[in-house]
Amino acid sequence: MIVCGPTGVGKTAFAIELAKRFGGEIVGADSMQIYRRMDIGTAKPTAEEKAAVPHHMVDIIAPDEPFDAAAYGRWADAIVTQLLADNKVAFVVGGTGLYIKALIYGLFKGRTVDDRVRQTLQAQLADEGAPALYAALKDRDPSAARIHPNDTYRILRALEVVETTGRAISEFHEAHHFGKARYRAFYIGLTLPREQLYTRIDGRVDAMIAAGLLEEVRGLLSSGYGPELKSMQSLGYRHMIAYIQGKLTWDEALRTLKRDHRRYAKRQLTWFKAVDGMHWLAPGEIDAAAEQVGRFFAAA
């Protein structure tokens, strides 16, 4: 079972209720909830929620450990395989579409990046900064607009691919054709009217701030997790870092944080609307979801 949708829509509560009805366990599909010590800004399930239904793929690595969709696919596949062997229902829940794709279908196989290319680009990053590399990427790959100008991890990865292969990383994604799915999956996508969703997102950001997001980021920085890390360049964390570094005022940090969450939700919806066989529901339609899931199992 797949439960997906944009940030702030209410996936966690919805999936927990559905999992309880079917005796399932939750496998997280969120690219940020995998990190330990990053709790507030990632909106992780609470201790009570994790006690209600077993959760997997949450708090599995440190903020400075490398991790990507391919690694997620391997880890999550092992968990789902074990759950199915134990006759349990696996509820894959999250908003990271690439992670879900990696689990169900696998990812494209690109050529190995040349270590010399990687070293050259990292030296260039140190000498010239992220803006220069981002400008170079935009000249080589039209899909660079999808990458945040401060996301040095993805900028470097995209440049490594284009320098090594002569092709944009987006070409590899577009040329990839999915093979047979590993599992028979039922997709539920949660959605709300845009204004209602945006109101919920703004409220979630306010709740994160009230819960101590700024203090969480300061604690990570003081523990040696630098702003250049992939994990620290994510939503919320990079905004608090920009405030701490004096690059944004507090009001600017909050405004751009809410704006960027809304933009992220829009990109997530675009991704999931392209998924074949998606069953769209509102977060409150748990009974309708249970009925659809029951029919899915009955047809197996």
Question: Could you explain the architecture of this structure?
Answer:
This protein is α/β, with parallel strands linked by helices and about 300 residues long. The protein has two domains: about 1-105 and about 175-300, Rossmann fold; about 115-175, Histone, subunit A (Orthogonal Bundle). Helices cover about 55% and strands about 10% of the residues. It is built from 13 helices and six strands. It has helices at about 10-20, 45-50, 70-85, 95-105, 115-130, 130-140, 150-165, 170-175, 195-210, 215-220, 235-245, 250-275, 285-300, and strands spanning about 1-5, 25-30, 55, 90-95, 185-190, 280. It has a six-stranded parallel beta sheet, with helices on both faces. β2, α2 and β3 (about 55) form a beta-alpha-beta unit. α5 (about 115-130) packs across α6, α5 (about 115-130) crosses α7 and α10 (about 215-220) crosses α11 (about 235-245). It is globular, with a radius of gyration of 20 Å.
User: Rg to the nearest angstrom?
Assistant: 20 Å
Please trace the helix and strand order, writing H or E for each element.
EHEHEHEHHHHHEHHHHEH
Gap between N and C termini: 13 Å
What do the pLDDT scores average to? Answer: 91
Shape: globular
| Unreliable stretches covering 5 or more consecutive residues | none
CATH class of the largest domain: Alpha Beta
- Major sheet characteristics: 6 strands, parallel
According to DSSP, the number of beta strands is 6
CATH H-level name of the largest domain... which superfamily? P-loop containing nucleotide triphosphate hydrolases
- The neighbouring-strand order within the major sheet is 3-2-4-1-5-6
How many discrete structural domains? 2
Q: Count of DSSP helices?
A: 13
CATH-defined topology of the largest domain: Rossmann fold
Report the CATH architecture of the largest domain: 3-Layer(aba) Sandwich
Structural class: alpha/beta
User: Helical percent range?
Assistant: 40-55%
In percent, how much strand structure appears in the residues? 5-15%
